[in-house]
Amino acid sequence: MADGAMKSPLVQVRGLKMHFPIHAGLLRRKVGAVKAVDGVSFDIFEGETLGLVGESGCGKSTVGRALLRLYELTEGSVVIDGEDIATLAPDALRKKRPTMQMVFQDPQASLNPRMTVAAIIGEPLDEHTGWDAAKKTARVYELMDQVGLNRRFANRYPHEFSGGQRQRIGIARALALNPKFIVCDEPIAALDVSIQAQVVNLLEDLQDRLGLTYLFISHDLSMVRHIADRVAVMYLGQIAELSPREALYARPLHPYAEALLSAVPEPDPTMESRRQRIILKGDVPSPANPPKGCNFCTRCPKVMAVCREVEPRLAEVEPGRFVACHLFDNNAGGQASPGAEVREHNQQGEQR
Ligand code: SF4
Question: 179 CB under 6 A from ligand 1?
């Protein structure tokens, strides 16, 4: 995180739901909904990188897209830098767009093959500024320098570049309008392993230099451990645990986070020799028909009777650590951590 200090929240997400209707029959009647994201609340502090992890299909990419209002929200609010983007009128949303950008997973698919690098990087400037050609070209060169692309390549086309270079082009385009907040949606998943670290290092470097705030969505838990300040673990459209990185990797609290992290190799050989993999039984239930009570109850090794009836709420069970699990809920008869103060992570946002 830039400057290393926690600041005020730049992004405040409260009760975010993204339900996609299921239609069936000749009349295409609505017969249900896929609850891709089902009541998610969290903050992202200025200059922070929040990692968002979980298995594929858990809803993490949908959260990223909803935060930038690439979807219309089913419910909830997303306040970015003081404005609820969920309710902004189209004109106001357009004005807001420059401050929030996205880096996509597949640079190949997200870059127009018929446009030169200069045109791709300069496209947001065409849309949002009235600059003349000379000013735009100067900005494009500046952005190419920032991401480590040689200016001589400005008139080349995306297919002439490697995957890593194409991702640099995508990052330069995202930076064109000086955004504050960037959603990085699996930005390294399509790249060779040898290139992944370079792109992550570039993102970190840019964050330090430009004071950026990131939501870093990834299924690569080792990379998230490297880049994130705090990490939210998602399961079936909800947040199971949100904790500072070190605390989460050293001692995950939620049984799902515990299982997920048990698959991550430990850098320390002594710790690695003690690592015990937790294999979960069964499949992830359909988000169109999540189980009653805790959404993890069909696979949880620590399931209790209450879990099949009552949905656990995300609550602060240790300072800065939020968990949705009855094991930490005194009122539900579970075993809370000794001395833990369980506070609901409520709609007003009491994270520090
Ligand atoms: Fe497991 Fe129950 Fe906790 Fe859900 S609430 S994670 S089922 S112990």
Answer: no
